[in-house]
Design a protein that fits this description.
The protein is α+β, with helices and mostly antiparallel strands. The protein has eleven helices and eleven strands. α2 (56-68) packs parallel to α3 and α3 (91-106) crosses α5 (127-135). It binds adenosine-5'-triphosphate and L-homoserine. Adenosine-5'-triphosphate (ATP) binds at residues 10, 27, 45, 51, 55-57, 81, 85-93, 95, 129, 171-172, 249-250. This is Homoserine kinase. ATP binds at residues 84-94. It is found in: Cytoplasm. Residues 61-137 form the GHMP kinase N-terminal domain.
Length: 293
């Protein structure tokens, strides 16, 4: 059995804890019954011994498996990870969502995606990464009475994501602590209006509005100050014709949307100017988490 889950970019500038979309960059795990518990890791995190011995995926999987099954079984877990850890591309959401989906799948119990999403909420209280990780596409999400309420839309094939991934991680927990405790009414109104406009632009495919609408006053500058080169990455991407360029989640990745015909040029320019960062161009993912038996 194989589970595949996409990377996600949250916030999209002004939509703090609300907006997110899925990118075709995936973690896969294949799980087989086995005589002994064993783990193999390929790709991102492969050199991190903690991920083998104290793996968040296995802890969540076991929680659910023990509740769902009355058998005691051991498994072999084979992870192939393309989502970098703590870079703002939703690695923790990918782990949470795929671990829950795996426990249900291995027991042959069908789980609908809305239920999966609400179970994932217990592990990550803001819904902007877990919603696109489960559903794929562009999502607007909020939480009410412990349930995620969301509206989604497929991303078109005419756009690409260009991501610039620094070699330094930023933990979401610490990046949340770096934010001010209070905001002015002006900043709050600025973000409400821009986030609303950005949502309308995605829903109506009005790509020319993305650049203006993706401005933010709530989190980006406070976080990007800790890696000031990111301001230059953002400026470069926009100057080369990107439709928008925002801090991905809590960072450190800078996420950019381009028209297909501009993506190669933007990627090349970013690679030339920031050779110490990893630059990738990807399609968007409209499937969310998938299970293959
Ligand atoms: N492939 C993985 N296997 C096991 N644990 C993982 C894996 N990927 C991430 N994690 C766990 O998630 C943590 C990273 O979560 P964090 O929220 O800081 O970053 P992120 O989810 O990549 O970023 P963001 O939420 O801003 O998109 C890691 O420290 C690790 O504990
Ligand atoms: N909305 C979250 C995304 C990262 O998990 C934040 O910016 O902290």
């Amino acid at each position: 059995m194989r589970i595949c889950v996409p990377a996600t970019s949250a916030n999209l500038g002004p939509g703090f804890d609300t907006l997110g979309l899925a990118i075709s960059l995936h973690n896969q795990v294949s799980i087989k019954p086995s005589k002994f518990h064993s783990v193999s890791l390929k790709g991102e995190g492969a050199n991190n011994p903690v991920l083998k011995d104290n793996n968040m995926f296995i802890a969540i999987f076991n929680d659910f498996y023990q509740n769902l099954s009355n058998k005691k079984r051991h498994f072999r877990f084979e992870f192939a990870n393309d989502i970098p850890l703590s870079r703002g591309l939703g690695s923790s959401s990918a782990v949470i969502v795929s671990a829950i989906a795996s426990a249900y799948a291995i027991e042959g119990i069908e789980i609908d995606k809305d239920k999966l999403l609400n179970l994932a909420l217990a592990y990550e209280s803001h819904p902007d990464n877990i919603t696109p990780a489960v559903m794929g596409g562009f999502n607007v999400a909020t939480v009410q009475d412990n349930e995620v309420k969301y509206i989604r839309k497929n991303m078109p094939k005419t756009l690409k994501a260009v991501v610039v991934i620094p070699n330094r991680p930023i933990s979401t927990q610490l990046a949340r602590k770096a934010l001010p405790f209070k905001y002015s009414k002006e900043d709050a109104v600025f973000n409400i209006s821009h986030s609303s406009l950005l949502t309308a632009a995605f829903m109506s495919e009005d790509w020319d509005t993305l650049k203006l609408a993706s401005q933010d006053k709530i989190h980006q500058k406070y976080r990007m100050k800790q890696m000031p080169e990111l301001f230059d990455v953002q400026k470069t991407a926009l100057k080369c014709g990107a439709l928008m360029s925002t801090l991905s989640g809590s960072g450190s990745t800078l996420f950019t949307i381009c028209l297909n015909e501009d993506a190669q040029r933007v990627e090349k320019e970013l690679k030339n100017k920031f050779p110490h960062f990893k630059v990738l161009t990807r399609d968007f993912d409209n499937d969310g988490v998938t299970v293959e038996y």
